[in-house]
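Incident review: delayed structure delivery

Summary: a single-chain prediction request sat in the queue longer than the usual turnaround. Root cause was a stuck worker, restarted by the on-call engineer. No data loss occurred. The affected request and its eventual output are reproduced below so the record is complete for anyone auditing the incident later.

Affected input:
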Amino acid sequence: MRLSLSKSFHSLSWLTPRISVMDRYIVMELLPPFLFGVGAFSSVGVAIGSMFDLVRKVTEAGLPMTLAMKILLLKLPYFVVLAFPMSMLLASLLTYSRLSSDSELIALRSCGISIYRLITPALVLSVFVTAMTFFFNELIVPAANYEASITLERALKQDTKVFQEKNIIYPEFSQVKQANGKKQEVLTRLFYAEEFDGQKMKGLTILDRSQENINQILVSESASWNNTTNTWNFFNGTIYIVAPDGSYRNILKFEEQELNLSRAPFDLASKDRDYNEMNIAESQEYLKLLQQSGKEKKIRKLIIRIQQKYSLPFACVAFALVGAALGTKPQRTSKATGFGVSVLLVFTYYLLMSIGDALGLSGVISPVIAGWLPTLCGFVMGAVLLVRVSQ
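Output delivered after worker restart:
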C-alpha cells in the first residue's frame, strides 16, 4: 500500500510549484522583516490615528473603556492594510541590503544570475501581498470602519445626526425621441428638498416633465419614503399642471398624496458613509447617484478615492521594486538606516498622494491620474533604479 501511495504522490508532483533553493532562501529572508513591519507600522498608525482620540473621548466624553477597546480593534484592519506596502518596502530593502553587505549577491551574480532574476522572489511576494490588500480593502476594512463609526456615534448619542443633509438636488434624465427621429438625453424630472432628517424630507419642490404635453410642478411641505409600497408619501402640498406653452391647466391641493417616483433622492440623502466605509462596488453605486446631483467637487473626490482603492494594493509591488533596487546597490546599509529610508519613502508616497488630491480636486489633472499618481511615481522610480543597478 505504501508503495502504491508513493507512486501516486510522485505522479502528481508536477502539480506542485517548483521553487528553487535560491527563491525559497530569499523569501524566507523577506518574511521576518515584513512581519515586523506590519506589526510596527500598524501599531504606530493605530496609536496616532485612533488611540489618542479614543483616550480623549474616554476621559472627556465618558466613552466606556470596553467600547473604546472594541472600536480600536475594529479600526485595526484599516491600519494593517496601510502597513502592507510600507512593510513590503522595509522587507525588500533590508533583505537585499543584507545579502549585498554579506557579498551573497556578488556570489550569486558570479554564477550568472541576473539582477532581475534575483529580485523576482520579492516581486512574487509583493503580488501575493497585493492580493491580500485587495481582500482586506474590499471585504473587511469598509465593514469594520462602518461598525466602528456606528458604535462610537451610538455610545456618544450622536446617531440622530448621521442622516442629516441639506439642499438635496436630484435631476433625472431620460432618452427622448426628437422630431428628427434621433433620441436625445433630456431632463425629465428635477427633485429638490431643503432638508432631510433621516426619515422625512422637508420643503420639497419637484419639476416633472416626464409626461408628454404636460408639465407638473409639485410643492410639498414634507415627504417620506414608504418601504412597504415603494412609493413616496407627500404631505400638505399643491400640484400645478402647466401646458408646454406655459398656459394654466389645473391646480390640485392635497393633504396626503402617494406618488410613484424614484427612490434615488432618498438613497442620495441617506448615503452618509465615509469613503473608507465603502468598498469599490458601493463607491461606484454612490458615484452614480452623485453624478445625477451635479456636485462636481464631491464627484471628483469620490473618483479619486475609488482609484486610490485600486492603486494602493499595487503600491506593494512598486515599493518591493524600489526596496529591492536600493538594497542591491553595493553598499553596507544597517537596519536602522533601512528603517529610516523606508519611513522617508513612505512619507514621500503620502505627500504625493496629497498633491494628487489637490491637483485632482482643482481639475488640473484627471481624477484617475490623481488617484494613481504616487503609485505610478513608485513604479518609475523603481524601474530607473533597477536599470542603473543592472548596468
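Verification: Confidence is low (pLDDT under 50) at residues 1-6.
Action items: add queue-age alerting; document worker restart procedure.
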